[in-house]
Amino acid sequence: MKKWILALSMGFIATCSLAALTESPELIVKNVSRDVLEIIKKNDKDPLKARDLVDTRVAPLADYNRMTMLAVGRNWKTATPEQQQALTREFRTMLVRTYFSALSIYKNAQVDVKGTRPGNDASEMSVLTEVSLPGQKPIPLDFSFEKTDTGWKTYDIAVDGISFINNNRNQFNAIIRKDGIEGLIKQLSDRNNAQRNTNK
């Protein structure tokens, strides 16, 4: 269940309402959760249509550059600018596609915002939520936000205390040690292409 909670939450951080530039992180999570779940329920027979509707109705919220940089860790500095762009592109694609794989499973999910927690300074904040399905125990889901020049953006989530970024960093570092930066790009690209072919 936690795997699909993570997948669904990636969708929430991958998108936001067009008004999010002036909204608080707490309100962003509430609005995105409501809008996305409504789209899922109305288009549960056609996930590709749901994906297109979400892309049309909402705009990017996640700081994909920072997310990718944190996930790659110290190896980020060894990558060329072209490799960094490729990593960010493939990482973003992975997030979006993983999210839509979870649509049919979590169309009846309920997301309850429980409050916020201040970060290290005024530019950081976490939104604390719980995600649940009928008859199942809620799972804590925390969104980490940073205030930027273009509004609040999220760069990490924690599912039941487990950081998405840290989890990916461990996997990415293992791939980089074996196959280098190009090997990581290739693996991400291969996964995305395989998923794309499956959804045709």
State the gist of this model.
By secondary structure, the protein is of the alpha+beta class. Helix content is 54%, strand content 20%.
Question: How would you describe what is shown here?
Answer:
- The chain has 200 residues and is of the alpha+beta class.
- The protein has one domain: Tgt2/MlaC (Nuclear Transport Factor 2, Chain: A), CATH 3.10.450.710.
- It contains 6 helices and 5 strands, in the order H-H-H-H-H-E-E-E-E-E-H.
- Strands 1-2-3-4-5 form a 5-stranded antiparallel sheet.
Give the key terms.
200 residues; alpha+beta; Nuclear Transport Factor 2, Chain: A; 5-stranded antiparallel sheet; 5 strands; 54% helix; MlaC/ttg2D; Tgt2/MlaC_sf; ABC transporter substrate-binding protein
